[in-house]
Design goal:
The chain is of the alpha+beta class and about 290 residues long. The protein contains 12 helices and 7 strands.
């Protein structure tokens, strides 16, 4: 979405600010997400007890066999996933305690941070540096029930639903700490799935000259955690298995033979027809300010 917004804003020097608003409906908690949360909490517990000298409370654990891996693969000798020229911009965009709740100057609302922002922010900046619109400020937000509710004065311009979202995420974290997230997630999934699964992402970006704003929407009739993510992964994998498709790629990442890259860096907008055929609806609009 950010890539498409940047292409639309090219005549205006590209984007200086991009915000991604994710509305997620239905689908529930994927088992993989639950296990990832539980694993992270368990590791944090072990580290905290080790620091306090209370590791004995964990009981005896059997040593696990680990397979030797190459710690310096060939692709690790390059500049890195996010180039040094983009690190300052990445630092400005990176999630912190100061932007868990954040005012959007574009939609004029308060929204909470998206829980995948720590991962996705670096991906966006890597692609931005690759395609010449690096230096932008990027923010990834969560609008659980739709952006329209966050822009209403009756919700204090998003403050009330944002706080409810944070309380919900806090409840999930507490359940993980107490070791009851697995059974609780099964109960929550029954309630969540009463709503039809749907994924709706809106990217709003303002140009560097402050004269234009691009809006990109991507929608898919399925939940984001299981179905939509799987569709994206499969379409990328099938595309890479198509020799004719790969031979037609003209990005620098493709010319270098791949490596540690992103689908956007590798394929650009050539992936769009495949996503459209898979049912992903995309709309792009541009208006002058």
């Amino acid at each position: 979405g950010v890539y498409l917004a940047a292409q639309a804003l090219k005549p205006h020097g590209g984007p200086k600010l991009a915000e991604s608003f994710h509305m997620m409906g239905g689908g529930g908690f994927p088992a993989g997400t639950v296990e990832t949360i539980c694993l992270g909490v368990e590791q944090a517990k072990k580290q905290a007890l080790a620091v306090l000298g209370l590791s004995f409370l964990l009981g005896s654990t059997k040593p696990t066999k680990t397979k030797a891996v190459n710690e310096n693969p060939a692709w690790s000798t390059n500049e890195g996933f996010v180039p040094a020229s983009e690190e300052a911009a990445l630092a400005r965009s990176s999630p912190s305690a100061f932007n868990i709740l954040q005012w959007s100057p574009q939609i004029k609302a308060i929204t909470p941070i998206h829980f995948m922002a720590p991962i996705n922010t670096s991906v966006v900046h890597a692609s931005a540096a690759e395609f010449g619109y690096g230096g932008l400020v990027y923010s990834e937000r969560l609008t659980t029930v739709g952006a329209w509710l966050y822009t209403s004065i009756w919700t204090l311009y998003g403050l009330i639903p944002s706080m409810l979202t944070l309380f919900g995420l806090g409840f999930v974290g507490l359940c993980a700490v107490l070791g009851i997230l697995r059974p609780v997630s099964k109960v929550l999934n029954v309630l969540i799935n009463l709503q039809a699964p749907n994924t709706h992402v809106t990217v709003v970006a303002t140009s560097k000259d402050d004269k234009a704003r691009a809006t990109v929407t991507m929608q898919y009739p399925g939940d984001p955690g299981i179905l939509f993510t799987s569709v994206l992964c499969v379409e990328v994998a099938v595309a890479l298995a198509d020799d004719a498709f790969v031979s037609g790629l003209t990005t620098s990442a493709a010319e270098e033979g791949g490596g540690l890259t992103t689908p956007t860096m590798l394929m650009g907008d050539k992936l769009l027809p495949r996503l459209k055929a898979a049912g992903v609806q995309t709309q792009i609009s541009l208006r002058e300010l």
